[in-house]
Amino acid sequence: MNKNTLVVGFMLFAVFFGAGNLIFPPKLGFDSGVDFWISIGGFVLTGVGLPLVATIVAAYYEGGYKKALENISPIISLLLLSAIYLTIGPFFAIPRTAATAYDIALTPFLEQASPTSLLLFTVGYFAITLWVSLNPSKMVDRIGAILTPALLIAIIALVIRAIMLFSGTDTTKAQTLDAPFFTGFIEGYQTMDALAAFAFSVLVINGIKAKAQANSSLVKQTTLAALIAAVSLAVIYISIGWIGYKIPLSTDMVTDVATKGQHLGTFILNTTANQAFGELGRSLLGLIVTLACLTTAIGLVVSTSAYFNSIFPKIPYKAYAVLFTLIGFGLANQGLNAVISKSVPVLLVLYPISMTALLVLLVNLVIPLPKLAQRLPIILVTVIAIASVAKIEFITQLPLSAYSMEWLPFAIIGIVFGSSFSKITVLK
């Protein structure tokens, strides 16, 4: 492994490593109790494994997922990618960055978090976001290149100190989860990194091309870089999940957190930072997370606005930037828990569809599939996923419905039936 591979790997790590994702593993770690290792395994599979596979598959298709999905169906490409951009953009990821920054950086220093303090914080947060997004420059990328290592160093320091604080005490929770692996699997959707791999595949692959060695294949470079990024992400997620698993929190403290409307994951990170490094350490963590969230928000506003401007060019880029910033601002003021809870149904629809599209494109690399065998599974899974979230009664009778995986048999059936029907039609 050479220096260029490491550079590309950490570049890819920076793409997926968002400050907003830090809050989910600690909460999962606390909630899972004795089932921690099983549940965090499920989380890593979707939060790390899927982006890894999605990035590698993208390297096989010229033009990334946009072109690959257009070859399946232009309508499927437009609808799926538009839904993904809106999800990782103004509807969920952008407001989540602001709400996370508020919860980590400001809430610990307030006697009582209030809608007014959240409003004032988000006014400043989104004013900066819009100002930079209207005139994007390489400065944001350069700041992001500094903040990602700074955030990583802060998290590593926090984990090391947490090991010193918690490893010697028996704080293992007695509670269990009904389906720990699949709970973690579904919780991993919240990272949205697999969706990001679809949206940013062209940028990622072009970045790898620019930095990769000339005598090495793109697929090989992408695979090695993706493995470096995946291992790094897995270590981070497992480590901060372990903090939530081991931290001694009483029932009264957890109840108080819920009563105040705080997210348990941000509370765990804040509490650990305070115990590990005192008020100064907690303040520094809050500052780094806020700046990292801000650069992420700017990047998402820019990329989402650019995508929709390329699809509907009659509406200028700046109009999209203003619109998406205002949507993010409005949604962020509902609070972090509200943003997260409202994202769950959407992710339960989008992830099965995206995973099915990924499965189709992966199978197509080994066994070329006819168009029907590529379209049918995506259409079937879309219907099943929407029906599942809408709680249509017959869905609960389907195999794997207890694990939110009822869509998987339909994905396989769609591929098999589509391939078989196409062969019969050709023979006739």
Offer a few descriptive terms:
single chain, 428 residues, mainly alpha, 18 helices, globular
Quick overview of this protein structure:
The protein is mostly helical. The chain has 18 helices and no strands.
List the helices and strands and how they pair.
Elements: H1 3-16, H2 24-32, H3 36-60, H4 64-72, H5 74-91, H6 93-105, H7 115-134, H8 138-166, H9 180-187, H10 193-199, H11 201-211, H12 218-246, H13 251-259, H14 264-311, H15 317-332, H16 336-366, H17 371-389, H18 408-427
Description:
With 428 residues, the chain is mainly alpha-helical. The chain is 78% helix and 0% strand. The protein contains 18 helices and no strands. It has helices at 3-16, 24-32, 36-60, 64-72, 74-91, 93-105, 115-134, 138-166, 180-187, 193-199, 201-211, 218-246, 251-259, 264-311, 317-332, 336-366, 371-389, 408-427. The longest helix is centred in the last third of the chain and has 48 residues, at 264-311. The chain is globular. The termini are far apart. 49% of the residues are buried. The mean pLDDT is 88.
